[in-house]
Write a structure and sequence with these properties.
With 496 residues, this protein is of the alpha+beta class. The chain contains 16 helices and 20 strands.
Length: 496
C-alpha cells in the first residue's frame, strides 16, 4: 500500500470517528466558544500562585500517551505547550472513552487543577475535557516534521503548528512595524490610505499587474508605488504623511523578491534628502532596537550594526572605488559607452547615456560590497525621474538609496517640484518606453497638474519592509517573513 493510500486511510478513520460522535449527539463543531482562563505559559510562569487552583485552557493535541485508565496529553496554544493529565475517574468513564479516541491535531478545551507530577513536571489534572474541533487531516510525523520548504510556504497553517519557532519571525515583524508607526506618529506624521487600483502605473520604474474594470471598461493597474498620490496630499496641505501597505510588481521572484510586498513611503514638506537620510537611519535603528533589543544583528553569520550614523558615499565615488572607472573624468555619452564596453557591459538602446552607464556599473561592481548600512547618493537624472536635480551638477539628483547586506532597503530624494522639468522627465521616460524599456513611467497628467498647482520643497522616502524584517529575523528568504508568499499552483494531474 502506497503512502497516499495510507494517508487517505488515516483521513477516513478520522471521518468515521467524527460520524460516530455526531450520531451520539456529540458534534464538536457546535461549540461556539470556550472560556479559558489561562494560556500555557501562565501555568509555568505563575505556578506558585496557581498550584492547586482550577484553570481552563484550550489548544491542539500534539502528543498523547495512554497508561491504562489515564492518559498524558500535551496541548499547544498560542503561547506554547502544557501537559494535561486525564483520568477516567476524574472526567467520567463515558467522557474518558470518548477522549481516548481523539487524535493528534484535535483541538480541545480542558478544565482542571494545576499540579506537579512525581517527576516534577508542571501539569494540569483534568476534571473536564471537551472536543472543540475534530482535525480530519493528520499532522506531519512528529519526528520528521514538515521539512519540505515548498510545502511549508504553501501550508503555512501546518508550518506554524509543527514548527512553532516560525511564529517568532511574524511576531518580531509586528513589533518592528508597530515601532515604525509609533516613531512616525510621535513626530507628527499622519498615516493615510491611497488607491491600490490605479488608472496609470507610476511612481517607480517597474512592470505592473494589469486588470480590467468592467463597469468603466478600462484597464487598471495594481499600484507599483504610492508616491504620486502621497505627493498630491502634500500639494493639498498635508506636511507629513506616510502609508505602509502592499505594492505589486509583475517581475521576477527570488529570495528577496515577491510579486506583492510591503513598503512604507513618507513625505515631509519643507525638508530635503539630507534630513530624510537622518530620519531613515534613526527610524531603522529604532525598528531594530524595538524588535530585537539591539541595533546590532547577526545576519547569516555577518554582524550588521544599524546604529547611526551610516556610511555615506556618492554613486560616482562608489563606481570609481569598486569598478575603477572615474566619471569625474568621463563627461560624454561616447566616452561612457567606451568605458562600458571596456568593462564588458552589454547596453540596450535605452541605456546609451552616461547616467545609465554609471548606474549599470554601480549595480555590477558596487552593490556587492555594501554590507554595513550605507547611503549611496547623487544618482543620475536618467534613472531618477521624480528627483530634484543637484544644483552643482544638474546631471545628478539629490537622491539616496540605503543598502544593507548588498540589498537596497530604502530609496529617497528631494522631490522634484518643478512642473516643467517634471513634464520633460516624463517625456524622456515615454521615449525610453518607445526604445523598449517597459518599466519606464507613463505620463500622468493629473499628477503634473498637481505639481503645477504647487508642491512645496519636500523630502520623500520609501522603505522595503520585508527586507528589513529579513535582516532583523536572520531569515534567508523573503518567503520566511511573509505569512503567505506567492507560490506557483500545484498542477492537478487528475484534471487532465
Amino acid at each position: 500500500m502506497g503512502i497516499e493510500a495510507n494517508y487517505n486511510e488515516l483521513v477516513q478513520v478520522r471521518i468515521d470517528k467524527l460520524k460516530k460522535l455526531q450520531e451520539q449527539g456529540k458534534n464538536p463543531y457546535v461549540h461556539e466558544k470556550f472560556d479559558f482562563t489561562n494560556h500555557s505559559i501562565d501555568i509555568f510562569d505563575k505556578f506558585d500562585e496557581l498550584e492547586g487552583t482550577d484553570v481552563a485552557v484550550a489548544g491542539r493535541i500534539m502528543l498523547m500517551r495512554e497508561h491504562g485508565k489515564a492518559t498524558f496529553v500535551t496541548i499547544q496554544d498560542y503561547e506554547g505547550r502544557v501537559q494535561i493529565y486525564v483520568r477516567s475517574d476524574k472526567i467520567g468513564e463515558d467522557s474518558y472513552n470518548d477522549f481516548i479516541t481523539y487524535d493528534i491535531g484535535d483541538i480541545i478545551g480542558i478544565k482542571g487543577t494545576v499540579f506537579k507530577t512525581q517527576k516534577g513536571e508542571i501539569s494540569i489534572r483534568a476534571t473536564e475535557a471537551v472536543l472543540l474541533t475534530k482535525s480530519l487531516q493528520p499532522l506531519p510525523d512528529k519526528h520528521s516534521g514538515l521539512k519540505d520548504q515548498d510545502m511549508r510556504y504553501r501550508q503555512r497553517y501546518v508550518d506554524l503548528i509543527v514548527n512553532p519557532e516560525v511564529k517568532k519571525a511574524f511576531l518580531l515583524r509586528n513589533k518592528a512595524t508597530k515601532a515604525l508607526r509609533d516613531y512616525l506618529d510621535q513626530r507628527g506624521f499622519i498615516e493615510v490610505d491611497t488607491p491600490i487600483l490605479n488608472t496609470i502605473a507610476g511612481g517607480a520604474n517597474a512592470k505592473p499587474f494589469v486588470t480590467h474594470h468592467n463597469t468603466l471598461d478600462i484597464d487598471m493597474y495594481l499600484r507599483i508605488a504610492n508616491e504620486l498620490y502621497l505627493k498630491r496630499l502634500v500639494v493639498g496641505g498635508f506636511e507629513k504623511v506616510y502609508e505602509m501597505g502592499r505594492m505589486f510588481r509583475n517581475e521576477g521572484m527570488s529570495i528577496k523578491h515577491n510579486p506583492e510586498y510591503t513598503a512604507m513611503e513618507l513625505y515631509w514638506a519643507y525638508v530635503g534628502y539630507e534630513e530624510i537620510m537622518v530620519l531613515t537611519e534613526n527610524l531603522v535603528a529604532h525598528m531594530a532596537e524595538a524588535a530585537t533589543g539591539s541595533t546590532l544583528v547577526n545576519y547569516q553569520g555577518k554582524e550588521i550594526d544599524f546604529k547611526p550614523p551610516w556610511k555615506r558615499m556618492t554613486m560616482i565615488d562608489a563606481v570609481k572605488e569598486y569598478a575603477g572607472v572615474d566619471f569625474y573624468k568621463i563627461q560624454t555619452d561616447e566616452d561612457a559607452i567606451a568605458a562600458a564596453k571596456e568593462k564588458g557591459l552589454e547596453l540596450t538602446a535605452s541605456q546609451m547615456t552616461r547616467g545609465h552607464i554609471i548606474s549599470l556599473l554601480f549595480e555590477e561592481y558596487g552593490e556587492q560590497h555594501l554590507i554595513e548600512p550605507t547611503f549611496i547618493t547623487h544618482h543620475p537624472v536618467e534613472i531618477s525621474p521624480l528627483s530634484k536635480r543637484n544644483p552643482d551638477d544638474p546631471r545628478l539628483t539629490n537622491r539616496f538609496e540605503a543598502f544593507v547586506n548588498t540589498w537596497e532597503i530604502a530609496n529617497a530624494f528631494s522631490e522634484l517640484n518643478d512642473p516643467i522639468d517634471q513634464r520633460g522627465r516624463f517625456e524622456d521616460q515615454m521615449k525610453q518606453r518607445e526604445l523598449g524599456d517597459d518599466e519606464a513611467h507613463d505620463m500622468d497628467e493629473d499628477f503634473l497638474n498637481a505639481i503645477e498647482v504647487g508642491l512645496p520643497p519636500t523630502g520623500g522616502l520609501g522603505i522595503g519592509i520585508d527586507r528589513v524584517i529579513m535582516l532583523l529575523t536572520n531569515s534567508a528568504s523573503i518567503r520566511d517573513v511573509i505569512p503567505f508568499p506567492t507560490m506557483k499552483p500545484i498542477k492537478d494531474e487528475s484534471a487532465e
